[in-house]
Design goal:
Elements lengths: L5 H10 L3 E7 L9 E5 L11 E7 L14
Parallel strand pairs: 1-3
Antiparallel strand pairs: 2-3
């Protein structure tokens, strides 16, 4: 699921008979809305109806830098 869009990842999980549980986190490497990770890992055998944790990027955390010139 990594790097897929949130809607595509959710659809893929549901089509496999599993239940997506989506959370978000900041990422410097993946754009907003892209999947960062999943648990269980790809290829793991689970029972139908099991939850799959899907972490989706919120994009880069941006902060305002104070003007520290001359201080």
């Amino acid at each position: 699921l990594t790097a897929l869009s949130r809607p595509r990842a959710v659809a893929d999980v549901e089509s496999a008979g599993l239940v997506p549980e989506v959370s978000t986190s900041f990422s410097v490497s993946l754009p907003r809305g892209a999947v960062i990770s999943q648990d269980p890992e790809p290829g793991t055998v689970v029972r139908e109806g099991s939850e799959v944790q899907v972490v989706v990027s919120r994009g880069v955390l941006r902060v305002d830098m104070p003007d520290a010139v001359g201080r």
